Please model this.
Amino acid sequence: MSNAAPAPSDQAIVVLSNLVKSYQLGQTVVPALRGLNFRVNRGEFTAVIGASGSGKSTLLNMIGCIDEPESGSIQIDGIEVTKLDDNAKSQLRNRKIGFIFQSFNLIPVLSVEENVELPLLINADVTAAERKERVKQAISDVALGKFSKNLPDQLSGGQRQRVAIARALAGNPDLVLADEPTANLDSENSHKIIDLMLQLNAQRHVTFLFSTHDERLMDRVSKMVHIQDGVIRA
Ligand code: ADP
Ligand code: MG
Model:
């Protein structure tokens, strides 16, 4: 299996323009994004690197349609997200985007297989037979076939994050967003997770955008952007 990413097309899947977002904290306004511009092309594997508090999570939550900006434009696959109502936004999120979180966010009482299946259950377009097939394929893609029936607490941290990756992939997303996916892992497992994401990017042609505050992980990542104080640094 090759780890070489496919040549990214220059078709944009994410285009952000002049994005502004701040949070209200009691009487104070905390700026998080200050007129941020950013673009991701289809097929790319991009790392967003920045210190804690630089705006990484806010940025990914904007792209993932989890939160809304105060002003600016967010285009996902040519669709202006800021103009969509909540229903259309969650449809777009379910159809096009997969999420991987720092803390894995697995459901402890569900098996590996059931965790991966869960987001597919709300997608009426996917038949039961196709759902089973996709779950099996995604679990095999992250090499956890032997652990399908296990519960999350019977797995290591690295294995749990692989379950979360399988869950993100099972929806056949165009774009996978991973917010500090290695922050709770040791260095060996962090490298393994990055390698797995690179391999899936090459094999499945899924676009990956992930954030990290650890620049040392990035030897093998071709496209890195630095975020500082809520803007992309040149
Ligand atoms: P990162 O993910 O890079 O650590 P965040 O996007 O979480 O950065 O945060 C950007 C800025 O916004 C920081 O100053 C942070 O303290 C602030 N912030 C983030 N979320 C909230 C919130 N819910 N309420 C108040 N301030 C927040
Ligand atoms: Mg964060």
Remarks:
- The helical segments are 56-63, 86-96, 112-121, 128-141, 157-170, 187-204.
